[in-house]
């Protein structure tokens, strides 16, 4: 097993770390996810910490770092989860079209020090603006099934990306992992994720 473990089943996070040259293994967190805060940055930090801690409990003794991450979408200060059905996805996307919303990703890196784990947690926020999109276009998109496992009912790297007017912030954060910020935060701690 690698010394770095990604506590996520997300293929997008896995791909981002691989492209960055990080050697890691994956142990998806299967613990219960719940949040106690409705403040988006606090909620994603809490979720990332929960994922990382769950996986740290089951990781083997060679593991030195556990990376947990979670992404949420917020609009008008309200957290938008994954859609529960097609109509929920349509409602969410109708509210986002023609507007600017925020994508938050919380990251917790647990660093092993002897028999304990030292947490390093941060969150990143990116503004995403959509062009106006018709209900017909949204319904066609929802029929693809793509939005059903995504916070905010879309993936910027997927089919709905054609409606993105612009972003302010880190594109990779919207995909699911603020890679540059992760590397920067680890560098401040003297950790080389590629080393």
In short:
This protein is α/β, with parallel strands linked by helices and 195 residues long. Helix content is 32%, strand content 27%.
Largest beta-sheet details: 7 strands, mixed
* Strand segment tally: 7
User: Number of helix segments?
Assistant: 6
Q: How would you describe the shape?
A: elongated
- Structural class of the secondary structure composition? alpha/beta
- Proportion of beta-strand residues: 25-35%
Question: Could you name the key traits of this structure?
Answer:
single chain, alpha/beta, seven-stranded mixed sheet, about 200 residues
Describe the model:
With 195 residues, the protein is α/β, with parallel strands linked by helices. It has helices spanning 11-19, 40-58, 86-96, 135-143, 171-175, 179-188; strands at 4-6, 25-26, 65-75, 78-80, 100-113, 116-130, 164-168. Strands 1, 2, 3, 4, 5, 6 and 7 form a seven-stranded mixed β-sheet that branches. Helix 3 packs across helix 4. The longest helix has 19 residues, at 40-58. It starts with a strand and ends in a 7-residue tail after the last helix. The mean pLDDT is 94.
